[in-house]
Specification:
By secondary structure, this protein is of the alpha+beta class. 34% of the residues lie in helices and 25% in strands. The protein binds glyoxylic acid and manganese (II) ion (MN) (2 copies).
Length: 410
């Protein structure tokens, strides 16, 4: 009887994920903004683990952990990110990094596998300083001027200052060696409830949404909240609120079946109970896998802004601050994930688009890329209660390792 091929060690995967959860723990989740102490400690934790997988690696000048294997043969790039949204979940990011590490430990040390997995942790996927800064730097899409201009959206700290405090000022940024990798594989929690509601174990990602983001600024007139008659007011906050409602009335008739839009932050200036806001600002995001749909919604947004300006009470400007392209996942990667699911997850998989953004969409611009999802309990994510059943985490790790084995064999 041939020996079964070595597979993922589920207990080791869970132990690693819990070790990362203990770094920067917040309730049952974590608080690890980019370049915070717990984020940096997590990067160092990963670097210390690399020898177990026959990898050498370090943190580069933008905060990516990048690794190399000296084993001959095909090389697969694999990973995700280690920072989190503020006060958020423990699996968004670390799951994909730990799966990649596990695949490297299993396959790089297996002489019957003619190739290796090289692990990466991309910096700032969660967009504290920009968006996809680490993976975009790796593909050559971030300039020094971009870094000069980047600031932490919560604290206002400059990226230069954060890099210096992390000991990374002057450290070189690494870019991709073209042709080195056969492709990039990333695992992630689904962050929605499709898998859970259908009793499935694995999502085979077909596409990743494009994310377009806007800063929409209203200007009115700051004045006294007691003495200014209602008819005289030029309330920028009220204009913003009406604009949000108008978007929700206009978009449904012109969007696609999976388009989503979100006002994630509203700021009123000066933001005091006895003062009519003279200025108001909202950060607004549109997501869809079809650029034409987003472009149509953008045109509607601008037309609505023109209407507000024509009415004349308050003025409004819309600035597009992020135009992320959607991406298709490689068909061979989808087939490999599906075949691995058939082998080790009873075929309980489904092809599905990703409504969340992921570094895989950036990597897909320079190499074939694929993604697999595991179920999220209740579909909750970007919140500290985010969770996945241990059994699903272990199944996902097994599918991931088998997918890597298949990709390296071809
Ligand atoms: C990634 O976290 C996203 O916001 O889609
Ligand atoms: Mn993520
Ligand atoms: Mn996220």
């Amino acid at each position: 009887m041939p020996h079964p091929a070595p597979s993922a060690n589920g207990a080791r995967v869970l132990a690693d994920l819990n070790a990362l959860r203990a770094i920067g723990a917040y309730k049952s989740g974590v608080h690890k903004p980019t370049f915070s102490e717990p984020h940096l400690a997590s990067l160092h934790w990963l670097v210390a683990k690399l020898p177990e997988a026959g990898l050498t690696g370090a943190i580069d000048g933008i905060g990516n952990v990048l690794t190399t294997s000296a084993k001959p043969g095909a090389k697969l790039l694999a990973g995700s990110h280690l920072e989190s949204q503020n006060y958020a979940g423990w699996l968004d990011g670390p799951l994909g990094v730990v799966y990649a590490l596990e695949a490297a430990r299993v396959l790089n040390n297996d002489a019957s596998v003619a190739g290796s997995v090289e692990v990466a942790a991309w910096c700032d996927e969660e967009g504290h300083f920009g968006h996809f800064l680490g993976s975009r730097s790796y593909v050559g899409g971030v300039s020094e001027a971009d870094i000069d201009a980047a600031t932490d959206r919560t604290s206002g700290r400059s990226m230069r200052e954060a890099l210096k405090a992390a000991g990374l000022a002057g450290v070189a940024r690494q870019t991709a060696e073209r042709g080195r990798h056969i492709g990039y594989l990333e695992a992630h929690i689904e962050q929605g409830r499709s898998l859970e509601s259908e009793g499935l174990r694995i999502g085979v990602v077909t596409s990743i949404v494009g994310i377009w983001q806007y800063r929409i600024s209203f200007t009115g007139e700051q004045n006294h909240a007691g003495t200014t008659r209602m008819a005289e007011r030029r309330d920028a906050g009220l204009a913003l609120a009406k604009f949000c409602v108008a978007i929700d009335q206009r978009f449904p008739s012109i969007c696609g079946p999976r388009t989503v839009w979100t006002t994630g932050r509203i700021t009123l200036d000066p933001g005091a109970p006895s003062i009519i806001p003279g200025r108001a600002e909202m950060l607004f995001q549109i997501r869809d896998a079809d650029v034409a749909v987003v472009a149509r919604l953008e045109a509607a947004l601008n037309a609505m802004a023109e209407d507000v300006n024509a009415q004349g009470r308050c003025s409004v400007t819309t600035d597009c601050i992020r135009k992320g392209s959607p991406a298709l996942m490689d068909s061979r990667f989808q087939q490999a994930i599906e075949a691995a699911s058939l082998d080790v997850a009873g075929g309980k998989s489904v092809r599905m688009p990703s409504g969340a953004g992921h570094d895989a969409q950036v990597l897909s611009t320079i190499m074939p890329a694929g993604m697999l999802f595991v179920p999220s309990i209740g579909g909750i994510s970007h919140h500290w209660t985010e969770n996945t059943a241990d059994a699903d985490i272990v199944t996902g790790a097994q599918v991931y390792v088998e997918t890597c084995r298949r990709l390296l064999a071809h």
